[in-house]
TrEMBL record:
<keyword id="KW-0378">Hydrolase</keyword>
<feature type="domain" description="Peptidase S9 prolyl oligopeptidase catalytic">
    <location>
        <begin position="482"/>
        <end position="692"/>
    </location>
</feature>
<dbReference type="InterPro" id="IPR001375">
    <property type="entry name" value="Peptidase_S9_cat"/>
</dbReference>
<feature type="domain" description="Peptidase S9A N-terminal">
    <location>
        <begin position="21"/>
        <end position="422"/>
    </location>
</feature>
<keyword id="KW-0720">Serine protease</keyword>
<dbReference type="InterPro" id="IPR002470">
    <property type="entry name" value="Peptidase_S9A"/>
</dbReference>
<dbReference type="InterPro" id="IPR023302">
    <property type="entry name" value="Pept_S9A_N"/>
</dbReference>
<dbReference type="Pfam" id="PF02897">
    <property type="entry name" value="Peptidase_S9_N"/>
</dbReference>
<comment type="similarity">
    <text>Belongs to the peptidase S9A family.</text>
</comment>
<dbReference type="Pfam" id="PF00326">
    <property type="entry name" value="Peptidase_S9"/>
</dbReference>
<keyword id="KW-0645">Protease</keyword>
<dbReference type="InterPro" id="IPR029058">
    <property type="entry name" value="AB_hydrolase_fold"/>
</dbReference>
<dbReference type="InterPro" id="IPR051543">
    <property type="entry name" value="Serine_Peptidase_S9A"/>
</dbReference>
<protein>
    <submittedName>
        <fullName>Oligopeptidase B</fullName>
    </submittedName>
</protein>
Length: 699
């Protein structure tokens, strides 16, 4: 059993003078109100002085972190030692092939491969490499695969790749029989889907300026010109493609953060017109799946027209009128219907029952229904997208704070789950050495805010332990308890780790999301603070012993919470934080801005402008003591522009509020470094900063 490590650690070195960004006053006027932004010039990407400043910040961070170099290497080595570098995913059947991906020791990226099924057997068949990401990434500073689609007959592979980190993907198509690539290149790809003829490929593309996915195209192999089929004119909406597991339809979703509509195309009629299922209505979202077989031809519909938690309906495939919909499961205040999955014999609803995830399985032959039971109350579970329509079993992935990612094949008739793979944690890991609990904080308005928490069982719960508190709270995205092998390096050193499930996320459905967006966004910040205070009151830690962490919109959450109650926190790590809210949201030419109005508000409207200005972290930083802060950015980030964290750190220094470090990855974007080894290096830096900023040895 790993024993708690309490060795003395080196301190951060802030003796080297920090780089000070030049002050170049810029008057920003809106609605008769003037802001003075001295660091606005940092948004001039092509200005050599900007790159020089970012490089100076990186050098300063390197100097401050230099005493931690041995610790960082120790952390990297132990985290790497827990990973089974030679690994393989659970194979998935599609047609006459078994598909899987695998990794090899020393190689940063996976290989996507398959084996042919012969007389029901495949294990001894020769392996065919479809895509070796290591070969594709060679000589490139960044590599990431986006959409990855094999044609229905298995002869062609279409995939989208990003080689800069800016999430701008290029289409490539490979003839798998010949092992050669077609002379086909399309840029700014956002999603892909094949028609049943194996030669028609549909794809969506993004706008050059705003990077909004807005157009649907059809490409037919052998033809020079592609056909533009649809353009989404509403700048709040983005489009994406999918193919139903039944192979009956291609589905084009056009959606905003609160509203969507779907268009369907029979997958075996690639030249037919796309038909709209139902006209979009404000605040109405829905999802479809398709069944075609011995029981008939029908669509299953998840829709929130009678309540925010959605209801479940069925309608004939040839009659989409609302009058034809038959309700199978009504709206329930305590049950959120999160998704539908359909196979020939089974239907699965992904649910949240009073905030807890579960899977509800229905036999289509007799209508018998049951929920899959999970012993751990704090968990994350997800149905896996088995593409084979006639699959005799279901597959889901389960994990928790103490259970590594585990893949189960589930036999619905026997109601029996079989573990087919659990991610191996090498070394001395034993789940019984860690304790996980779920508790609640009470927000200022009386709302109960869930907290998920894990610690080593030998960690003293007397208030002395440092605690890592993470949060997100935006877009209705749930932050469920997941397993992390890198987190063990904290837990084994006496840290406690917790997630604050603040409003704005999706842990309790649309109402939870609505409670932390637009005019109610400040609830997210007060929820986060309430969670921290509750953990202090409950004796898990003390004020000043909490490290706050959040990324992107979670970085906004942490930055706003720091300003409201800096004494509660002993340090913070902000990953690509969205902190310059007002200036960014006033610029509709930036990626994502217009579509984000439904989440944050539109500051071009005066009321929204002043509401956002009241909590925007960059605009509200004042002169007071702040704890040490590590801020991370990506030069090619297309979601949170690099200048937001750069400006935030510059103003933080100006306010004399914090010893702040800014680290900008000059070769990556929103997701950080590509490749598993580079990502581990970045994680080691974060953990070393945390360990040095809040030493465990304090009592």
């Amino acid at each position: 059993m790993p024993k708690l490590t309490r060795t003395a650690l080196p301190a951060l070195d802030f003796s080297v003078p920090a780089p000070l960004a030049a002050r170049k006053p810029k008057r920003l006027v809106a609605h008769g109100h003037t802001r003075n932004d001295p660091y606005h010039w940092l948004s001039q990407r092509k200005n050599p002085a900007v790159l020089a400043h970012l490089q100076a910040e990186n050098a300063y961070a390197d100097a401050a972190l230099a005493p931690l170099s041995a610790l960082r290497e120790t952390l990297y080595t132990e985290m790497l030692a827990r990973i089974e570098e030679d690994d393989q995913s659970v194979p998935v059947k599609l047609g006459e092939w078994m598909y899987y991906s695998r990794t090899e020791q020393g190689l940063a990226y996976p290989m996507h491969v398959r084996k042919h099924i012969v007389n029901g057997q495949w294990a001894s068949s020769p392996e065919e490499v479809l895509l070796d990401e290591n070969a594709e990434a060679e000589g490139k500073p960044f590599y990431e695969v986006g959409d990855f689609e094999v044609s229905p007959d298995g002869s062609l592979l279409a995939w989208a790749e990003d080689t800069r980190g800016n999430r701008q993907y290029r289409l490539r198509v490979r003839d798998l029989g010949k092992g050669s690539d077609l002379r086909l290149r399309r840029d700014r790809i956002t999603s892909l889907a094949w028609a049943n003829d194996n030669r028609t490929l549909f794809y969506t593309t993004e706008d050059v300026q705003t990077q909004r996915s807005f157009q649907l195209w059809r490409h037919r192999l052998g033809e020079r010109e592609d056909i533009l089929l649809y353009t989404e004119e509403d700048e709040r909406f983005s489009v994406s493609l999918m193919r139903t597991r039944s192979n009956g339809y291609l589905v084009l979703t056009s959606g905003s953060h609160t509203t969507n509509e779907l268009r369907l195309l029979p997958a075996d009629q690639p030249d037919a017109p796309w038909q709209r299922f139902a006209a979009r209505r404000p605040d109405i979202e829905y999802e479809l799946d398709h069944y075609r077989g011995t029981l008939g031809d029908f669509l299953l519909l998840r829709i929130n027209d009678t309540g925010p938690n959605f209801r479940f309906c069925i309608t004939p495939a040839d009659d989409w009128r609302p009058e034809a919909w038959r309700e199978l499961l009504p709206h329930d205040d305590d049950v959120v219907i999160e998704g539908i999955d359909l196979w020939r014999d089974w239907q699965v609803l992904s649910l949240r029952v009073r905030g807890q995830q579960t899977l509800r399985v229905t036999s289509l032959s007799d209508g018998a229904t049951h929920d899959i039971a999970f012993a751990d109350p704090a968990h994350a579970v997800e149905i896996e997208d088995l593409p084979e329509w006639e699959s005799p079993f279901l597959r889901y992935e389960f994990e928790s704070f103490t259970t590594p990612d585990s893949t189960f094949d589930y036999a619905p008739l026997a109601q029996q789950a079989t573990l087919v793979k659990q991610v191996r944690i090498l070394g001395s890991f034993d789940a019984s050495h860690y304790s996980s609990v779920r508790l609640e904080a009470v927000a200022a308005d009386g709302t109960h805010i869930p907290i998920s928490l894990v610690h080593h069982r030998d960690t003293p719960l007397d208030g002395s332990a440092p605690l890592w508190l993470e949060g997100y709270g935006a877009y209705g995205i749930a932050s469920d308890p997941w397993f992390s092998s890198t987190r063990l390096s904290l837990l084994d050193r006496g840290w406690i780790y917790a997630i604050a499930h603040v409003r704005g996320g999706g842990e309790k459905g649309q109402c939870w999301h609505d409670g932390g967006r637009l005019q109610d966004k400040p609830n997210s910040f007060s929820d986060f603070i309430a969670c921290g205070e509750t953990l202090v009151t409950a004796g898990y830690t003390r004020a000043g012993r909490i490290l706050a962490n959040g990324g992107s919109a979670g970085g906004l959450l942490v930055a706003a919470s720091l300003r409201l109650n800096p004494a509660l926190f002993g340090a913070a790590i902000l990953d690509v934080p969205f902190v310059d809210v007002v200036t960014t949201m006033l610029d509709p030419s930036l990626p994502l801005t217009i579509g984000e109005y439904e989440e944050w508000g539109n500051p071009q409207q005066e009321a929204d402008y002043h509401r956002l200005l009241a909590w925007s972290p960059y605009d509200t930083l004042d002169e007071r003591p702040y704890p040490p802060v590590l801020v991370e950015a990506g030069l090619h980030d297309s979601q949170v522009m690099y200048w937001e964290p750069a400006k935030y750190v510059a103003r933080l220094r100006e306010r004399k509020g914090s010893p702040a470090l800014l680290v900008t990855n000059l070769e990556a974007g929103h997701g950080g470094a590509s490749g598993r080894y580079a990502a581990l290096r970045e994680r080691a830096r974060q953990l070393a900063f945390a360990l040095a900023a809040i030493p465990v040895s304090e009592s």
